[in-house]
Amino acid sequence: MSRDHLSSAERSADSAEAPFLELLARGATADAYEQPVLLARAEGLPDGRVAALEQAKLLALRVRTEIEGRRRREAELSALFETAHDLAGLRDLDAVLRAIVQRARSLLGTDIAYLSLNDAARGDTYMRVTEGSVAARFQQLRLGMGEGLGGLVAQTARPYVTDDYFKDDRFQHTRTIDAGVQDEGLVAILGVPLMIGPQVIGVLFAADRRARVFDREQIALLGSFAALAAAAIDSANALTETRSALERLGRANEIIRDRSAVIERASDVHDRLAELVLRGGGVHDVAAAVSEVLDGTVEFTEPGGTPSMAVEAARADGHAVRHGDDWVAAVAAGGELLGALVLRGHPGLDPVDQRTLERAAMVTSLLLLARRSASEAEQRVRGELLDDLLDTRDRDPGLLRERAARLHADLDGPHVVLAARLDVVAADAGQEAGARRRLWSAASHLAATRHGLAAARDGGTVLLLPLGPGDTATTLARRTAKELGTAVQEAVTVGASAPLDRLATYPEAVAAAYTEGQRCLEALRLLGRAGDGAAAEDFGFLGLLLAGDRDISGFVGRTIGGVVDYDERRGTDLLRTLDAYFASGMSPARTKDALHVHVNTVAQRLERVGRLLGEDWQSPARILEIQLALRLHRLSSHGPR
Predict the structure, then answer these.
(1) Which of these, 234, 161, 170, 174, lies nearest to 200 by C-alpha position?
(2) What is the CA radius of gyration of the chain?
(3) According to the model, what pLDDT value does residue 309 have?
(4) Pair 101, 131: CB distance under 8 Å
(5) What is the pLDDT of residue 88?
(6) Per-residue pLDDT tens for 108-152?
(7) CA 194/CA 158 separation, integer angstroms
(8) Are 20 and 54 in contact (CB under 8 A)?
């Protein structure tokens, strides 16, 4: 194919993308992307033009999906923060419950959300608030304890999810409940308990009228949301009960003022925490704010950083517990322990301050989950871009550069592809999967801090990292092996490719470089160098077999370059002497006959070779490398014979 023809094809591809770029710009529906292709076929355009349009259409749809995914994730995080802010300022119980249901539906993007509360007097559960419901019978349902999915959640105090309600036999079906669910047309239902301490006060539901799988993160987020909502219900109930008691008993004005001050103080704390979260504060910012409010030192500790008995007691009770002179509040979400807030050296703590510490722990769990969701979303995007480079699914340099720029990566600079794998024997499949997850998490963090990319692949991870000034592929591989090993507390072996440039223009080079990195990794393991990092240039002549580009001139230069340079500068015959020496079975006497020189001349030349190549040049391993380098030098200098 001629260059002119290639230019024509490229111009055709560029013009084929124009209508789809316009569709992307105006946010058209997916169906609209078929129109340019159908129009081209109707006009009888050449097959090449139609094929270019088809390719451009697929690329545009992929971009549209990516944009929609980002918008969806941003909307979920926004809804989460707005919920924390709204709940902190609400005082009326009915308003609290309506906000809970509306936010739950918005958070998960479901067709319907609803909330049921337990009726202690009648011993059942009733539907209190619904959002998106269209069936009157469903809105008026009452469930006996233990009946239906909601009864199972209330009875076990655990989240339950069903992909198909009517085919699920884990819970007790009743004619009344099934009729209401059928009227509403529900199929997939997720329910999480609303709990105050160990007591279940109700159930928060999110449901769809089609089959849907709720993943673990969605369940955990809704569980954390339900915990915050239950606390708001508790606060609203407490406020209602306080007002009723004040009206019934007619307490003195001093008592009323004191109680009002307590409530205002709690409200102020909630507002401060909500404001801190909304402006992007971190976990330690929450601890600092609560330290100021409680006039003490509050610290956030990772799981294992606080005595386990105190943390488990706080987690089980749902309240902060005293431990010596400290107070401990568990930071948990969806059954997962994320850490603890510890108030140091403050044995005397009134109920309001205790509740403040507990609210801070809830906000901390919400913040940690939100940060985790954002981090995992970025990790997935980095992995998707590297997967596309490895599989060469996306060959548009402009789009590749744009995707990389959003991740603060520059594909036009020098990069190295690194294949990393754990060198640990797991006791079972679960432990092995956990070790791989830790490696993937550490590699993703390293890629994000180094403005690179990372993806899980072939039982390990692959990284694409920029090559810094003064770095080589070898130094980068060794440093990466050390940093990943330190992060996961296990030996991590890393094989590196030769440096690559202009990856956006030549994405196919990434797959070849990954293969080279894998070869180096396997060579390290076979040589017993587990936990180390290396590139092909570190393996001598073996590197010729490992390197993707077969760097023959580099191998020759590293092996006998000193002798070649000496001959060129001095006009000597050291290379010819080496050839004759090896051809004569390393016998100086036979070498002098082949060269027609005195044996002392041979000895002097070999001594010079030893000074240039090192004292171990006649060791078996070096001899093999030198002979191979001599042959390759001769071939490259004179051509094949």
Answers:
(1) 234
(2) 35
(3) 79
(4) yes
(5) 66
(6) 889 999 999 888 888 888 989 999 999 999 999 888 877 888 888
(7) 10
(8) no
| CA distances to 16, 341, 434 from 305, in Å | 59, 10, 21
Helix (H) or strand (E) holding 550: none
Beta strands in 209-306 (DSSP E): 297-301
Per-residue DSSP letter, 336: E
Identity of residue 323: H
Is-contact 291 298, C-beta < 8 A?
Answer: yes
Higher per-residue confidence, 278 vs 134: 134
Distance CA 217, CA 223 (A): 10
Give yes or no for a contact between 510 and 503, defined as CB atoms under 8 angstroms apart: yes
pLDDT band at 258 (very low <50, low <70, confident <90, very high): low
Q: How far is CA 196 from CA 200, 203, 230, 234, 237, in A?
A: 7, 12, 6, 7, 12
Helix 216-249 vs helix 351-391: crossing angle, to nearest 10: 160
Sequence-distant (6+) residues with CB within 8 A of 612 are 562, 563, 566, 574
Beta bridge partners of 161: 190
Q: How far is CA 333 from CA 41, 128, 308, in A?
A: 55, 25, 17
Q: How far apart are CA 623 and CA 582, in angstroms?
A: 9
Query: Which of 22-42 are b and which e, b meaning 16 or more Cβ less than 10 Å from the residue's Cβ?
Result: ebbeeeeeeeebeebbeebee
Q: Given this model, what pLDDT does residue 317 score? A: 75
Rounded CA gap, 314 and 74, in Å? 33
Question: Do 232 and 362 form a contact (C-beta atoms < 8 A)?
Answer: no
Span 479-507, pLDDT tens digits: 998 998 888 888 899 988 889 888 878 88
For the beta sheet containing 460-466, the strands, ordered from the edge strand earlier in sequence to the opposite edge, are 453-457, 460-466, 415-422, 492-496, 533-535
Residue 195 scores a pLDDT above 80 = yes
Q: In this prediction, what percent of the chain has a pLDDT beyond 70?
A: 80
Q: How far apart are CA 437 and CA 460, in angstroms?
A: 9
Listed residue (475, 481, 480, 465) closest to 386, CA to CA: 465
pLDDT above 70 (res 36): yes
Per-residue pLDDT of 355-400, as tens digits, reads: 888 787 777 777 766 565 545 555 565 557 777 777 876 667 778 7
What pLDDT is recorded for position 111?
A: 94
User: Taken in order 155, 159, 165, 166, is the CA torsion positive or negative?
Assistant: negative
Residue 384: what are its φ and ψ, rounded to 5°? -65, -40
> Could you give the C-alpha distances from 308 to 304, 313, 339, in angstroms and in order?
7, 8, 10
Residue 471: phi and psi, rounded to 5, are -85, 155
Question: Which residues lie below 8 Å from residue 374, measured CB to CB, with a gap of 6+?
Answer: 73, 77
How many Å apart are CA 519 and CA 544, to the nearest integer? 11
* Amino acid in position 321: V
Q: How many percent of the chain have pLDDT more than 90?
A: 11
Q: Which two tokens stand for residue 205?
A: 């539901």
Task: Tell me the average pLDDT of the chain.
Answer: 79
String of DSSP letters for 2-61: -HHHHHHHHHHHHHHHHHHHHHHHTT--GGGGGHHHHHHHHTT--HHHHHHHHHHHHHHH
Q: For 583-619, write each residue's pLDDT tens digit.
A: 888 888 898 888 898 989 989 998 998 888 888 888 8
Q: Is the pLDDT of residue 270 over 70?
A: no
